[in-house]
Amino acid sequence: MSHVDADAASFDLTCRPWVPVQMLDGREHLLSLREVFEQADGIRRLAGDIATQDFALTRLLLAILHDALEGPRDVDEWAELWEAEQPFGPIDGYLDEHRQRFDLLHPKTPFFQTPGLRTAKGEVFSLDRITADVPNGVRFFTMRALGAERLSFAEAARWVVHAQAYDTSGIKTGVEGDPRAKNGKVYPQGVAWSGSLGGVLAEGGTLRRTLLLNLVAAEADVVTVSDEDKPAWCRPAPEPGPAKDVAERPYGPCDLYTWQSRRLLLHHDEDGVHAVVLTYGDPLAPQNRHKAEPMTGWRRSKPQEKKLGQPLVYMPREHDPARSAWRGLASLLAPRALSTASARDAANELRPGVVHWLAQLMVDGVLPQETLIRLRTYGVKYGTQQSVIDEVTDDSVAMAVVLLHEDDSALGRTALDAVGDADASVRALGDLARDLALAAGSDPGTRQDSAREAGYDALDTAFRDWLSRIRPGDEPERIRTEWQRTVRRIVKDSAGVLISAAGEAAWAGRTVATKHGERHYDAALADRLFRIRLRKALPLAHDSEDPS
Known about the structure:
The structure is a single chain. By secondary structure, this protein is of the alpha+beta class. The chain folds into 3 domains: about 5-280, no CATH class; about 310-405, no CATH class; about 410-540, Topoisomerase I, Chain A, domain 4, CATH 1.10.132.100. About 35% of the residues lie in helices and about 15% in strands. The protein is built from 15 helices and 15 strands. A 3-stranded antiparallel β-sheet has the order 2-1-3. The longest helix has about 30 residues, at about 410-440. The chain is globular.
């Protein structure tokens, strides 16, 4: 049955199971939108096909909540939701009202799609264009060795949401009615909106808590919300080409969380989806969107300021796949205030709006300072001019909300100093590996990089554990001393492994030409220099009782 013949077909996302979740008992299920909200207290987290699908689906759920609740408008309304027995009560009626727009196969308003979308020649394309579990066109390490030839309706719905959030750039198919199409093609206009972000989500112990923690109030001075703010299903079904009002948008979080970055249309029969048409939709430039997008950190960009001729430009801070989330703690704890006398004094980094929101809830006494939250990070690394997905990143770091306090920031600064302690110690370990390589006559650069990577890996669990145990009232110097002693023990153990494996050539040593002249390197000298550097990196750990 062709798409045109399938007008009577339906897959209602409000009542058909399609959202993957993990329950508190560890079991995984597919639930409908109604069931997700009804059972949110018993759901630990979303469990999509890939991590970024979870981020995209969570934003979809948040858009439903914001619109159904018409808020929250302020902290007091949010606090009522936090304490309510059934904070999601209005959802059922809301989904009834908008049920038609949540039908994946509706002939006139298919969910997150453009009805009647077609190329001049009526072509349809492989579902590989919307599935993202491997780089486009690559068949190694894939769950679908033969490609995505067919998807169930539930799978297809998830990938439609993901495509609107994370689709690649590159040349795309031109469609009828799109003024941007030339000779059957549309030229690159950038990745879909979430793909430009270093996504940050506050995660609670249940899905209910996760959704509420990220439900930023309109009057919280975190995001700018217009009266026109509404999700995609409350707007007319999209047509080919950009929306007429795209230059004035986004109007608020509902608009942004359901941003239609692409125009697409699934082709199906009674057994599932077998093809897709996909092209560009509504463009959205990332510059200075920090008052619209709360789920990413921001960095000041001097090149963008020069290019655009503007005094101050902030860009989303993307996640480095090679760095654990705790190593980027500074971008999560950075100040949020923008008021400065001049652009010259403006902050180089802004923490995510959702982190600022959590801090506000704590300062207002709604969240106790000892509340443990997990900041989960999501991102995509694109390759070949952003036309393929190379890597999907997913990490998290847990901490007490007191660390987010801007006015009483001693514990937050201590956490950042602890990251610096780790960095300095890992540099010392890398320098040891370099010196041992010089002594043995091997490549110092490769050994240094490998040792640093191993050093961070060795410290990873210890730092996460130390950070999660910080509580209000802890004395900053005491807990930092505790951390430095932990680092010293772990890094010295790693150093011992390097020295033991150095080999006879390193112990015999050799004379090396340096910028300060010739110097004889051997394992004993490398060990001595390492201990000096480590003592300098961790002064609190080297007290009079333990001078090693």
